C-alpha cells in the first residue's frame, strides 16, 4: 500500500510537470548552484578581454559582434575567441538591424540547421538573411521589396515566434513636396512566422486610414500600436486586421501573379506582395494620451502607465486600470527629481506584475494589490527600495573652513550630480533571478562604476563588482549581465567603441599572484 501510494504521488507530480530526472529540473538546480557560487564573497569577476572598434559593437547571448556583424566572437570560452570573420562588406550590403533566433523546444523542424541558433539580419538593400550564429553562413535569403520603401528595423511581435520588419517613414523629396505631391503611405510592415521562416503578410500604414499626424507604428503581442505627434497612442487588434483585410495568402518561394506582376514570393526583383490592404479604419481597442507617446501595459489585473500630456508633468507617472481607466490608489508616482536625466518607470520583466521606478538615487519596486474592503480597486504599494550610497554627501549648504570662516553655497547640487553615487542602469537576470544595478560616481575626469546584484524578491544586496575601466557619464554605456559573464560596451565621441568582458573566477591565492 505505501508503495502504491508513492507511485500515485509520483504520477500526480509528473502530470503537473514535476519529475526529478527531467532536464528542466536539473537545469534549475544548476542555475541555483551557480547563483550561490556567484554570490559567495570569495567569487570575483576578472577582466579577461578588451577590444576597441570604429563601428558599433553588439552583444547577443554569449556572442559579441564587430564590424557590422562581419566578425563574431564567442564570450563563453575562458578567453573570448573568434567564431567567424567574414570579408568586409560593401555599403550596399550594410546590415541595418539584427535579431538572434533560437530553436523552439518540442517542435519538428524541416531542416537540421533550424535546430541551431541563427541570426536574422536586415540589409540596406532590403534583403532579409538568416545566418548561422556559429559560422555566418547564409541559410535563407528573402528579398523584401524594391525602391518603394526602405526597411530598417527588426522587432518581435511574440519573442522567438513572430517577427516584424518595419520600414523607415516614407518621406517625399523636397522637389516633390514643393509641387504639392501627396504621400499617403507612411510605413510598411512585413510580418513573419519564424522557424520555419514563413510569410504572414505585409501591410501599409496609410494616413488616409489612420490620420495625418502618425509619427510611428509597432506590432507587439498581437497589438498594432499607432503613435501620433499630439501624444496620442491607439491600439488595434493585429490578428483581426490581418483576417479582415487579407486579400490573398502567399508562401515564400511560390510563384504568384499579383496586380499584373508575375514572380516568386521573396525573390528578386519582386519581393513580397502587400497583401493586407486596410480599406477602412479598424475597430479601436484602446486609446490613451501621454507625453512623448510613453505608454506601457502590464501587471495583474491589467494596468497601464502614462505621463499626462503636458511638459510640466514630465517625470510624473499615472498607473491606471486598463479595464475602466480608473487611477489606482497611490497611482501617481512622482520622485520630484531635480536632475539632468529623467527618472524612468516600467513593468518588471519577471512577469510578477510589479513595477520598477528608477531615480538618480532611489529604486522603488512597487506592487499592485487589492484595496482593503474594496476588491474592485487596486492600490500601489512599495515592495522594497534600493538606495544609493551617499554617506559622503557633498551637498552641504554650509561648510566651515580650517580658520573658522563659514562659507555658504549659492546653489544646490542636482540629484544626479556626477560626484554623488547615481543609478545609471537597472536590469534583470531572469535565469538567476537577480536584479542588477549600475551605480556611478565621477570626481573630476575619473568615473567609477559598480555593478550590484540584488535579491529580486526582497532587494537585499548580495554582491558588488567594481568595473575597472573609467566611466565617463557623458558617454553612452550598455552593461550586460549574463549568468557568469559581465560585458560593458562604451561609445565615445567620434564613433569610437570599446568592449570590456568580465568572467566569474574563484579568488584563490594562485589567482592573486
Concise description?
This protein has six helices and 36 strands. By secondary structure, it is mainly beta.
What does this protein look like?
- The longest helix has 17 residues, at 23-39.
- The protein has six helices and 36 strands.
- The termini are far apart.
- The protein is mostly beta strands.
- The strands form ten sheets. A four-stranded antiparallel beta sheet has the order 1-36-35-34.
- Among the domains are: 1-39, no CATH class; 89-289, no CATH class.
- The model has no long low-confidence stretch (mean pLDDT 88).
- The radius of gyration is 26 Å and the shape is globular.
- Helix content is 10%, strand content 46%.
Element layout with pairings:
Layout: H1 2-15, H2 23-39, E1 43-53, E2 58-60, E3 63-66, E4 71-74, E5 81-85, E6 95-101, E7 118-123, E8 127-132, E9 138-143, E10 151-158, E11 162-167, H3 174-178, E12 185-193, E13 198-206, H4 207-210, E14 214-220, E15 223-228, E16 232-237, H5 238-245, E17 255-258, E18 261-264, E19 284-289, E20 295-298, E21 303-306, E22 316-321, E23 327-334, E24 344-347, E25 355-358, E26 362-371, E27 374-387, E28 398-400, E29 406-408, E30 422-429, E31 434-443, E32 446-455, E33 461-467, E34 476-482, E35 485-492, E36 496-506, H6 509-512
Antiparallel strand pairs: 1-36, 2-3, 3-4, 4-5, 6-7, 7-8, 8-9, 10-11, 11-12, 12-13, 14-15, 15-16, 16-19, 17-18, 20-21, 21-22, 22-23, 24-25, 25-26, 26-27, 28-29, 30-31, 31-32, 32-33, 34-35, 35-36
Amino acid at each position: 500500500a505505501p508503495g502504491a501510494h508513492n507511485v500515485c504521488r509520483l504520477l500526480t507530480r509528473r502530470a503537473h510537470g514535476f519529475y526529478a530526472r527531467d532536464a528542466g529540473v536539473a537545469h534549475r538546480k544548476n542555475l541555483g548552484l551557480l547563483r550561490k557560487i556567484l554570490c559567495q564573497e570569495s567569487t570575483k569577476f576578472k577582466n579577461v578581454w578588451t577590444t576597441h572598434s570604429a563601428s558599433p559593437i553588439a552583444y547577443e547571448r554569449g556572442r559579441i559582434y564587430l564590424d557590422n556583424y562581419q566578425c563574431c566572437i564567442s564570450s563563453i570560452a575562458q578567453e573570448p575567441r573568434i567564431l567567424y570573420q567574414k570579408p568586409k562588406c560593401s555599403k550596399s550590403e550594410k546590415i541595418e538591424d539584427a535579431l538572434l533566433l533560437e530553436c523552439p523546444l518540442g517542435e519538428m523542424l524541416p531542416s537540421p540547421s533550424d535546430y541551431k541558433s541563427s541570426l536574422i539580419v536586415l540589409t540596406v538593400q532590403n534583403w532579409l538573411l538568416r545566418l548561422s550564429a556559429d559560422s555566418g553562413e547564409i541559410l535563407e535569403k528573402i528579398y523584401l521589396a524594391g525602391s518603394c520603401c526602405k526597411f530598417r528595423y527588426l522587432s518581435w511581435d511574440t519573442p522567438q515566434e513572430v517577427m516584424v520588419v518595419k520600414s523607415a517613414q516614407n518621406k517625399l523629396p523636397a522637389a516633390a513636396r514643393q509641387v504639392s505631391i501627396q504621400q499617403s503611405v507612411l510605413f510598411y510592415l512585413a510580418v513573419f512566422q519564424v522557424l520555419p521562416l514563413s510569410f504572414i503578410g505585409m501591410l501599409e500604414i496609410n494616413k488616409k486610414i489612420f490620420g495625418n499626424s502618425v509619427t510611428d507604428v509597432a506590432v507587439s503581442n498581437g497589438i498594432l500600436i499607432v503613435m501620433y505627434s499630439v501624444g496620442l497612442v491607439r491600439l488595434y487588434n493585429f490578428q483581426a486586421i490581418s483576417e479582415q483585410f487579407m486579400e490573398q495568402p502567399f508562401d515564400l518561394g511560390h510563384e504568384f501573379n499579383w496586380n499584373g506582376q508575375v514572380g516568386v514570393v521573396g525573390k528578386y526583383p519582386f519581393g513580397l506582395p502587400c497583401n493586407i490592404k486596410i480599406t477602412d479604419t479598424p475597430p479601436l481597442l484602446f486609446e490613451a494620451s501621454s507625453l512623448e507617446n510613453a505608454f506601457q501595459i502590464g501587471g495583474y489585473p491589467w494596468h497601464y502607465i502614462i505621463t499626462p500630456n503636458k511638459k510640466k508633468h514630465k517625470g510624473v507617472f499615472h498607473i491606471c486600470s486598463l479595464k475602466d481607466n480608473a487611477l489606482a490608489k497611490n497611482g501617481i508616482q512622482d520622485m520630484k527629481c531635480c536632475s539632468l536625466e529623467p527618472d524612468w518607470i516600467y513593468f518588471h520583466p519577471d512577469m510578477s506584475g510589479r513595477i520598477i521606478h528608477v531615480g538618480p538615487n532611489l529604486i522603488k519596486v512597487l506592487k499592485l494589490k487589492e484595496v482593503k474592503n474594496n476588491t474592485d480597486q487596486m492600490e500601489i504599494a512599495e515592495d522594497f527600495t534600493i538606495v544609493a550610497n551617499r554617506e559622503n554627501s557633498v551637498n552641504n549648504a554650509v561648510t566651515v573652513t580650517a580658520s573658522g570662516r563659514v562659507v555658504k553655497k549659492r546653489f544646490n547640487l542636482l540629484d544626479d550630480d556626477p560626484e554623488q553615487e547615481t543609478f545609471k542602469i537597472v536590469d534583470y537576470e531572469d535565469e538567476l533571478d537577480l536584479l542588477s544595478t549600475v551605480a556611478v560616481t565621477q570626481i573630476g575626469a575619473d568615473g567609477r562604476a559598480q555593478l550590484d546584484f540584488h535579491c529580486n524578491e526582497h532587494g537585499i544586496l548580495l554582491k558588488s563588482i567594481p568595473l575597472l575601466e573609467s566611466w565617463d557619464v557623458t558617454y553612452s554605456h550598455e552593461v550586460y549581465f549574463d549568468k557568469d559573464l559581465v560585458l560593458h560596451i562604451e561609445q565615445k565621441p567620434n564613433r569610437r567603441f570599446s568592449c570590456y568582458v568580465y568572467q566569474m573566477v574563484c579568488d584563490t591565492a594562485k589567482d592573486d599572484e
